[in-house]
Amino acid sequence: MAMLNEERKEELITLTQRMIQIKSYSGEEKAVTEEMRRFCEKHSFTDVTTDRYGNCICRIKGSRPGKKLLFDGHMDTVPVPDPSKWSHDPFGAEIADGKMYGRGTSDMKGALSAMLAAAAYYAEDLKGDFPGEICVAGICHEECFEGVASREVSRLVKPDYVVIGEASQLNMKIGQRGRAEIVVETFGVPAHSASPEKGVNAVYKMCGVIEAIRRLTPPCHEVLGKGILELVDVKSSPYPGASVVPDYCRATYDRRLLTGETKESVLALIKALLDEMMEKDPQLKASVSYSSGRETCWTGETIEAERFFPGWLYDKEEEWVKDIYREMKAIGLDPSITNYDFCTNGSHYAGEAGIKTIGVGPSLETLAHTIDEYIELDQLMKVVESYYGVMRAILK
Ligand SMILES: [Zn+2]
Questions:
Q1: Which protein residues have their CB within 5 A of the ion that is ligand 1?
Q2: CA 360 – CA 346 distance, rounded (Å)
Q3: 3-state DSSP assignment of residue 374
Q4: Of 51, 78, 83, 244, whose CB count within 10 A is highest?
Q5: How close is the Cα of 65 to the center of ligand 1, in Å?
Q6: How confident is the model at residue 144 (pLDDT cuts 50, 70, 90)?
Q7: How far apart are the first and last CA of the chain?
Q8: Euclidean distance between CA atoms 108 and 11, whole angstroms
Q9: Dihedral angle at the C-alpha atoms of 264, 267, 270, 276, nearest 10 degrees?
């Protein structure tokens, strides 16, 4: 196995730096797709396409039929609100003390670059003689819509296996909690605040609802942990409210989803509570639903979805998980097998589509979205070996 010589190491570092130097907030990923294409054209990729949302799909077909393995890495990053707080230029990709600094180094252009490099070098080392197909997809709009743009990639590629490259410190992640954004609304009657008895104050009504929801116990999973139902914001209308009793109030909850939970089952608990409260209080009018988002892609296409991204979990004892683990050990890596603490595109692949999915990425997950985000070059290099391990396990 040839893997990473000095020339390849240098090429991977340069690719990652160029990716970091491109600012690519959600919906602005076009230049990243061009960078990916440039790399693929230098190597033995079969084809590179972009879909309607602007995801970039890079494929290498093997010489024989076999499994399709998809590497998924998102191209968008969260913004940099205040560059002056950084000790390195967030778009400079400066290297110091074995670390590359910049927005997206850990989350997750380092992983995406390593995926491209691993795919190219693997195919080259085997002179294209392997079964199946390797596909590296750069995904857009992940930061607010986990798994939504991925739906299009999975429809086009139809992978048998997926690798999510979110930071895992080279460990294997076989599950995650999902998440939902739940909106509770109360509807009152407006009145002048000099005679509030003539109206129904939607905020007072909401206070009762919030207290009652707080007494609910969301479910718990022995591996994934707590379901969580946390209030994250409250808004009333009109706002600001000058001399008026507000007739509308909206509260948003972050709910972490466990396996087996459905769109219906998650809302049912809150719905039942509201129904009971409305029966006791004829003045209370309340409803519950999922929030939805709508954004524009760099292609001009609109992406929209209800914010319900399911959780997923595989068993450590499944044959394909053990196969990957064995190959990693054979290469000299020592991954542990655990779960992600946050939500990823795996919500779609594993949670919605039932495709065998594993998370393997470089770096610490706690570095995502931080000031002075960085990736250790050692992690960037090592994850290429991890990806070799996955390819050796699946493409046989
Ligand atoms: Zn990420």
A1: 107-108, 166
A2: 12
A3: strand
A4: 51
A5: 32
A6: confident
A7: 15
A8: 18
A9: -40
Distance in angstroms (rounded) separating the CA atoms of residues 257 and 264: 12
Centre of ligand 1 from the C-alpha of residue 230, in Å? 22
Tell me the two tokens of residue 384.
Answer: 């290429």
**pLDDT recorded at residue 2:** 59
Question: If we measure between CA atoms, which residue out of 116, 30, 136 comes closest to residue 76?
Answer: 30
**Contact by Cβ (8 Å): 387, 115:** yes
- Residues 57-90, buried b or exposed e (16+ Cβ, 10 A)? bbbbbbeeebbbbbbbbbbbbbebeeeeebebeb
Res 358: pLDDT: 98
d(CA 78, CA 367): 12
**Which backbone phi and psi does 240 adopt, to 5 degrees?**
-70, 155
pTM: 0.93
Ligand 1 geometric centre to CA of 135 (Å): 19
